[in-house]
Structures are given as C-alpha cells and as structure tokens.
Amino acid sequence: MSVSVDSNFSHKIWQETELSKMVEGGVPFPMITDAGGRIGSLYGVYDQEAGVDVRGRFIIDPEGIVQAMEVLTPPVGRNVSELIRQVKAYQHHQKTGEVMPSGWQPGKPTLKPGPGLAGKVWEVWKPDKAF
Amino acid sequence: MCLMVGKPAPDFEASAYIDGDFKKVKLSDHKGKWLVLCFYPGDFTYV
C-alpha cells in the first residue's frame, strides 16, 4: 500500500492521468491518504516542516511485525529488486529458520545458525559474496 | 510510541483510493499476508 499526504481526489487523478500510462490498469494497491501526516508520524517519516511524508518503506510480516525499514530523503528513488530480495529472505527464514548472509540472493546458499557454525563462517562465506 | 524492527507495526485506519473507489483501509485487516507500506512525498513528484 502507498501513503502520501495527498487527497484521494489527487490519487485518483494521478492514477488516471499518469500511473495508468506506466502500469497497465494502474497501480493495483490502495493509495492511502495521510491527512496531516497522522500515519507518517506513527512511523517516524512525517517531515513536519515540509508537511510531507518522506520515502519510508516498511516490510510487515503476516503477524503484523515490522521486519525491515528503509527511509530516504525525497531526491532519491528506491530499489524494488532489493525490496523483493528482502521479502524473499524473510519468508525463507520464517519457513526454514535459516539465515541469509550478506549479499544473499534467492537460490544462493544460506547459513544454518548453531554452535557448530560459530567461528567457522569464514569457511563457507567470503566477502566477495557480499556483492 | 517508538517504531522498531521486530516490533508490531502501528495500526491505523484511513481513507484510500483503490479500484476506482474511495474506501476505508485498516492495516490490521491485512494480517496473514506480507505487506509493504510505502510512504512518498507527493503525487506527481518526479522520482
């Protein structure tokens, strides 16, 4: 779901005049209106001086727990591939209990936490895998 | 309240534009699904 301080009328016109030209049928998720930055304030991303929500992105799991967040100032856009990678990593962890080392991509080796691995990570993971 | 990873997401109810309609959306109605909440500075901004 997306959130900005704009009204639903603005969301509607943006969807109709621009977003639907980028994504066939328009974006498929609710575009929430955050009047007065009420929701942004709850999440610590409302800039009171500018009167807008900055680029905050939160991954919330099926239990309603915040698993990850990223907050950027307005000039720089996000990386959707990284978002999807993080969602897949958390899903894999919740399913298997395994943990994902730095640079992990779906299908790549994971680590099984436990006393046997302590001090031995260097044997199975090298810094070049972080990139 | 303070937001923290590993802690519950603050719940809220708000109005939203979806499927050509204006509807009420409640965060906790989406329990059971993975959810991404994405804030941005404004409609029609460039980035």
Q: Note the main sheet of chain A.
A: 2 strands, parallel
Q: How large is the count of helical segments of chain B?
A: 0
With strands numbered from the N-terminus, the spatial order across the biggest sheet of chain B is 1-2
Query: How would a textbook summarize the main sheet of chain B?
Result: 2 strands, antiparallel
The beta-strand count of chain A equals: 6
Shape of chain A: elongated
Short overview:
Chain A is of the alpha+beta class and 131 residues long. Chain A has 4 helices and 6 strands.
Q: Could you characterize what this model shows?
A:
The complex is a heterodimer of chains A (131) and B (47). Chain A has 131 residues and is an alpha+beta fold. Chain A has 2 domains: 2-53, no CATH class; 81-125, no CATH class. Helices cover 31% and strands 18% of the residues of chain A. Chain A is built from 4 helices and 6 strands. Chain A has helices spanning 8-22, 38-42, 80-96, 121-124, and strands at residues 2-4, 31-33, 46-47, 52-53, 55-60, 66-72. The longest helix of chain A is centred in the C-terminal third of the chain and has 17 residues, at 80-96. The radius of gyration of chain A is 19 Å and the shape is elongated. Chain A starts with a strand and ends in a 7-residue tail after the last helix. Chain B contains no helices and 3 strands. Chain B has a two-stranded antiparallel ribbon. Chain B has strands at residues 13-18, 21-26, 35-39. Chain B has 47 residues and is mainly beta. The radius of gyration of chain B is 13 Å and the shape is extended. Chain B starts with 12 loop residues before the first strand and ends in an 8-residue tail after the last strand. In chain B, 0% of the residues lie in helices and 36% in strands. The interface between A and B is large, with 54 and 39 residues.
